[in-house]
Amino acid sequence: MAGKSSAAAATYSPSLTGQRKKRPPIQTDSEWVRPDGRGLHQCRPAFLKTGAVNSASGSAYAEFGNTKVIVSVFGPRESKKAMMYSNAGRLNCNVSYTTFASPVRGQTPEAKDLSSMLHKALEGAIILKSFPKTTVDVFALVLESGGGDLPVITSCASLALADAGIMLYDMVASVSVSCIGKNLLIDPVSEEESYQDGSLMITCMPSRNEVTQMTVTGEWSTTKINEGMQLCLDACSKLGKIMRSCLKEAASGPQD
Amino acid sequence: MAAASGTNDLSSDMELDAFRRLFPLRFHERHLLESIRPDGRPLGRARDTTLSLGAVASANGSALAKIGCTTMLAAIKLEVMIPIAEAPDEGCIAIDFHMPPICSPLIRPGRPAEVAPVISKQLSDTILSSGMIDLKELCLVSGKAAWMAYLDIYCLDADGALFDAALLSAVAAFSHLQIPVVSLNDNGRIVLMSEENGENGGSMKKKEPVNKEKIKLKLNSQPFSLTCVLHKNYILADPTFEEESIMETYLTITLDTNFQLVSLNKPGGPGLASTSAIQDCIILARQRVKELQQILNEAISDMEVD
């Protein structure tokens, strides 16, 4: 292993990653062609499954195209000793990436901001009063990052919370939209995210029709924003239905 | 002490789960008397094991191994390095074992598990000393370029016998490894053939690939392992987390496919292992190696069918 540390810094990936793929020119009259051949308003195929990790109180696995995420929920359990007394429960979120999540090793995104975004997206949906003095831990591991990571993590975490039997006002579903030129692309992959003009992400509770988190970046016109929001909300309610049916399946499975 | 002496009577009134939590050792020892374990296994049998190759699309080689509930995901990424002067024809393998907080309630973010670096070291010692991979196979251009294989193993669910599952996933990831065809460009860098052609198209003449015949890594005898818990006179193969945490000591035996001993590890503990117990463990390990080899071969042939 002597060569490990000395050689580690000097290695490079054989793929030409230094240069990003150039963005194709925007054609104003023709339709945008997506790298995976989807329609502009078509989401990636989603696979969801609860009970992925046996040693956790609740867990879920989500696979949206190439984005693969596992979320484990632990607790409610004792809060850290240094914590003050609190009537309401606490939520603790942590997101991490595997070293092989991105195409080039070691180029995984900073996960600290994702942890706090996940916390903010979920806390509004959890009935924190139902577990006073204790903490619920939500840990996410991104096995493979293929774009739209945060929305997938958030939806998967909500499913894991439900699997753990944590009381929720409603499930939380999250979808993002990318704006490229005049086109709105739902559920973008990494390549599309890399050359987008703007992005919009909505996290909502579909059956209560409430939004827990919404982020807008880049340049948007008011009409575009409205259109994008409507797209997201429609997709969220569809995703919510898929999540519900996944939970129902898991609940009815063992009795058969 | 009245409670302790009365447990035998108490157990008949108590709920099973409560008894299991309050007196875990008694609970297990009662099973051992009947030569059976709480999950219904006989003492010498390992849990159901599954293996699937190619679980991570962004890696050059990957495998997901499950032994009972213990789940390991191993992935290999190849990068190019300049070989050191002492060994100009050799590549390098860097092995890292991770236990992210999702895998066990005992691990919190920011406080890495104590066992992770121990298993990491054990894995690299075992894999590098077993002679499974000839580092010369990783050479691209002598003295100029060689492959650096980064093997990362993630524990997704920790339920005992972590080393066995990690080693199985690592060996499987190496047998799934597909080496990309590369060529040497004008700047002396190694680049992928497909991208080289795509970027420069017809303007440049095609470069010769430097590793045309080395798409698969040749694996010599692969190592497989079995962990056994030693408790009093009993030997329990492939322990769960619960069994590992309450019983006296354990022994990990690694054999290669020719049944040569690669490593034997007994990490202390209150129990001592007698020579006959070690021999019994080796016999169990021999059977297990046959099983694991078959599981790996099946996984490889499943992959080829797809």
Descriptive account of the structure:
The complex is a heterodimer of chains A (256) and B (306). In chain A, the strands form 2 sheets. Chain A has a 5-stranded mixed β-sheet. In chain A, strands 7-6-8-9 form a 4-stranded antiparallel β-sheet, with helices on both faces. Mean pLDDT of chain A is 86; it is low at 1-8. The N and C termini of chain A lie far apart (52 Å). Helix content of chain A is 27%, strand content 28%. Chain A is an alpha+beta fold. Chain B has 306 residues and is an alpha+beta fold. Helix content of chain B is 34%, strand content 26%. Chain B contains 9 helices and 12 strands. Chain B has helices at 2-5, 7-13, 16-22, 24-33, 115-129, 162-176, 193-200, 241-246, 275-305; strands spanning 49-53, 61-67, 70-81, 92-98, 139-141, 145-157, 182-184, 190-192, 223-231, 234-237, 249-256, 261-265. In chain B, the strands form 3 sheets. In chain B, strands 1, 2, 3, 4, 5 and 6 form a 6-stranded mixed β-sheet that branches. In chain B, α3 (16-22) packs across α4 (24-33). Chain B is elongated, with a radius of gyration of 23 Å. Chain A binds chain B through residues 1, 3-4, 6-8, 10-16, 52-57, 59, 66, 70-72, 74, 77, 94, 96, 98-103, 105, 137, 139-141, 143-144, and chain B through 56-59, 62, 69, 71, 73, 75, 77-82, 84, 87, 92, 94, 96, 98, 100-105, 108-109, 124, 128, 148, 150, 152, 154, 156-159, 180, 182, 189-192, 195, 199, 241.
What sequence of helices (H) and strands (E) makes up the elements of chain A? HEEEEHEHEEHEEH
Helix content of chain A: 25-40%
Average residue pLDDT of chain B:
87
| Helix content bin of chain B | 25-40%
- Bin the strand percentage of chain A: 25-35%
Rg from alpha-carbon coordinates of chain A:
20 Å
- Tally of extended strands of chain A? 9
Overall body shape of chain A: globular
What is the rounded distance between the termini of chain B?
A: 63 Å
The largest β sheet of chain A comes out as: 5 strands, mixed
Structural class of chain A: alpha+beta
Q: Structural class from helices and strands of chain B?
A: alpha+beta
Oligomer: heterodimer
How much is the average pLDDT of chain A?
A: 86
So what's the overall shape of chain B? elongated
